[in-house]
Amino acid sequence: MNRTVFSLPDHSEYRTRGGLSVTRSVEHFSGGASRLDDLIELLDRRRGVVLSSGTTVPGRYESFDLGFADPPLQLQTTGANFSLSALNARGEVLIAFLGDVLREPCVVITERSAGRLAGHVLCGEAPVDEDERTRRASVMSLVRDLVAAFGASDDSMLGLFGAFAYDLVFQIEDLVQKRARESDQRDIVLFVPDRLLAYDRATAQGVVLSYDFAWNDKSSKGLSRDTSESVYARTPRQGFADHAPGEYQATVETARAAFARGDLFEAVPGQLFGEPCERSPAEVFQRLCRINPSPYGALMNLGEGEFLVAASPEMFVRSD
Fold it and tell me: Mind giving me the DSSP string for 217-249?
């Protein structure tokens, strides 16, 4: 994570590459671990993201947390369909901006209002060259367009935060989907925040970056940052599994026999199962931070009752 955030000036103004006017103010604080805890607890009822690096290895990992709640703008996609939604009045400024500047030819906007842009992407054929397949026309083309619109050399912190689902592979490779998906499944949920909290556990120093946006005659200055509730619901749940007892073990034995014949060099058998948990996502995340500190931890309230809690020793993707 970018530690230059702690040396930012207290006030600055700039324009993004798409022409959005941004005003950024920086509040420095010390000894404020409680502010991070308050943010984590808030994510049980408000959309937002906390990214956490909870371990220090000199030259490799440093303890650092970055997060936000109440983002003004949300992108979500399912298959080739997408929606950009203002989550409060501040987000309507960003909707107006994006409605004017999105230029990717494969992105077709079929719905426009003060608080929402929606449409679909004209997905392209998979190129023969495997290295080019991630560049085929897909919902990732829209993501790249958004990155270009919000990007600015003056600020490396403001951006898109959220989650990508594995089903995005169907937009890169021409694969046949064999398992039916739930109707509420989304492939991408990304937020644009307007307030970021960054905290260095090692030095107990932190900053809060607050942003205001202006486009044409619209400005977010003075508008409320509150968004609607997205509450973790404590309801009775039953455990489930998509494998009967012994089925997974049989799959492993089948794979072992294939390895012995030389038919396989790698296999990742999978099973889907769940068990009820009485603790909320924030409680689970806080416990993980204490008992299993990892360089890549995350807590996300993605809205619509969907939460993601993560603690991993591995980096899966990095872009330079």
Answer: TEE-TT--------PPP------EESS-TTHHH
